[in-house]
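[Automated response] Your request has been received and processed.

Submitted sequence:
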Amino acid sequence: MAELTTFSYRSGNSLIHSLDVRFKLAALVFSSLATLNADFRMLITASCLLVIVFLHLRMPLKSVLKEIRYFFLLMFLIFSARALTEAGTPLIETKYILISRQGIYEGALVAWRLLIIVFLALPFVSTTRYSEVKAAVEWYLTPFPFIPQKRIATMLSLIMRFIPVILDQARETADAQRARGVENRKNPVYRMIKFVIPLIRRIFETADEIVMAMEARCYSESRTGPVFEARLRDWIALAASGGFCLWSVMT
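Generated structure:
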C-alpha cells in the first residue's frame, strides 16, 4: 500500500477543505493562468499567499520539498538555458559562454512561475477527494456533446490516485537497488536503466491489478457522485482567483 505523500488527500476541516470542488478547480485554473503571465511583484504576492495557505493547512514543508526535489533540477536546467541563451548586457563572458543580466532575470522569472504553479496544485490535491475531482470534471464536461465525460473524469481521478502509488514504488525500487549495491557502479546510465526498467514494469503490473480489481467489482461509469452546493465563500474564492488572473492580464 502506498504511503501518505504530499500528493495524497489529507482529511481536515479547514476552509479550503470545505470549498466546493468545482470552484476550487476553477480557482486553480485561473491562478495557474495568471501565474504564467505574472511579474516579480505578482509572484511575491502569490508566494506570500501560498505561505499563508500552507500554514493554514499545516502542510509539512520539509516533506513537500523532499517530494519535489527532482523538480528543482528541472527548474535549474530551465534557468541555465534561459541565462545562456537570452541576449542582453553581458554579466559573465568567456570564449564559449555568455551570461547576460536579462538572461538571469528571465530564467529566474520562468523558474519562479513554475514553482508557484506546483505549489498551487499541492493544496488542491491534499484537500480534495479523488471522487470529488471526478465529479467536478464530469460536471464541467457535461454540456459538451460527443465527449465521454464519465470516462474522462474516471481516467483523471485514477491518474491522481495513482501518483502516490508511483512515488511509493519508486522509493521501494530505489531501496532495493541500494541494498544490492547498484550505487557502487560508476556508470550513471547503467544505474538509471536498472532503476527505470523495474519501476516501469511494476507500474504496469499495478495498473493491470487495478483494472482486474475494478472488473471483479463490476465497476460502472454510471455511479452516484457527490451533491454540489455553492456557498458564499465559494464565490468569494472564485472572484479572488479571477481578479488575480485579470490583474496579470492588465499589468
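Summary generated for your ticket: The longest strand covers residues 90-93. DSSP finds ten helices and two strands in the chain.
If you did not submit this request, please reply to this message.
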